[in-house]
Design brief:
Length: about 300
């Protein structure tokens, strides 16, 4: 078990760091949109136009498609599953390699705090391009699904019962682990809220989760943390003060558990550095973290029959 730091990314950052911090507060419900925009307007005195700031900070999902939704190497469908302790009927985005014969390891892909947006669907396709069966649930399905914009998605998800939401992701993990295409090996990767969900799954179903990769995710409930055994690979941006403040206590528990984990910190990177739809994206760190993630899954989810 160890914690590692990468070298600083060689990326120019003309936008002041406080703007990224304000966006993080806004995206996580700590300030409202009016306050966020008002603070950005104050940067006008430094020569930043509102259009430059908002285009850098707010997502542009046209930038996030690395794997086409109609890639011939993949088959993508929407699959429903039952969540008896959660919201009843739920749905997710299932992506399978068209070359798959027999079974393969499965990976649950967990979205941020705004529903299954185009970026996370693309991540599921990227995972399937690596030979895994990927399943990305949409927590907002009981309310009609991701609404097409993040503001409404955040508001919808914030209004949902948190306990039922967590049960929905546990049910999703069980659904894909037992899927006809599954080798029985289950991994999970998640971003922001999804990173929390991966930590929660590691604590709630440690015997069923074979590998977890939380990106800038907060720890599970304190009473569940003694259950975590790993293996886990955790990714953090060094500038993400909000999430990073939770790490020392969580790491202390992981060490006490003798858990199998490794944590990577990316110098100069913000929360959301893997998300290629916003100005927080750091290509070098995103690519390095992703290659580490794929290698980690291939190592820990081995044993599929193909």
């Amino acid at each position: 078990m160890k914690t590692q730091k990468s070298s600083p990314a060689a990326v120019s950052r003309p936008i002041p760091q406080e703007a990224f911090d304000w966006y993080d507060e806004y995206a996580h419900g700590l300030i409202d949109r009016r306050t966020f925009i008002s603070r950005l307007a104050g940067l006008g005195a430094l020569g930043f136009s509102m259009s430059v700031l908002t285009s850098a900070l707010l997502p542009n999902y046209a930038e996030a498609e690395q794997v086409s939704f109609n890639d011939p190497d993949l088959k993508a469908t929407f699959e429903k599953f039952r969540s008896p302790k959660g919201h009843g009927e739920c749905q997710g985005y299932l992506v399978t390699p068209t070359s798959l014969v027999g079974k393969a390891p499965v990976v649950l892909v967990v979205h941020e705090n705004r529903g299954l947006n185009p970026y996370v669907k693309d991540v599921a396709r990227r995972m399937a391009k690596q030979g895994f069966v990927a399943f990305a649930p949409d927590a907002l399905y009981p309310l009609g699904g991701y609404p097409g914009n993040d503001d409404d998605g955040r508001a919808m998800q914030r209004g949902m019962d948190r306990v039922k939401l967590e049960e929905d992701f546990i049910a999703a993990a069980q659904f894909i682990k037992s899927h006809q295409s599954s080798s029985g090996k289950l991994g999970a990767v998640g971003f922001c809220f999804g990173g929390y969900v991966v930590n929660m799954l590691a604590a709630s179903m440690p015997g069923d989760l074979d590998a977890g990769v939380p990106y800038y995710g907060s720890p599970p409930a304190e009473e569940l943390r003694p259950n975590v055994r790993g293996p886990l690979m955790l990714h953090f941006g060094s500038l993400d003060e909000r999430v990073n403040a939770t790490w020392p206590g969580y790491e202390k528990t992981l060490k006490a558990n003798d858990a199998d984990y490794v944590a990577h910190f990316y110098d100069g990177a913000n929360h959301g550095f893997h998300n290629d739809s916003t100005g927080r994206y750091v290509p070098a760190d995103a690519e390095l973290s992703w290659s580490r993630t794929i290698e980690f899954f291939k190592k820990n989810l081995a044993g599929a029959t193909s």
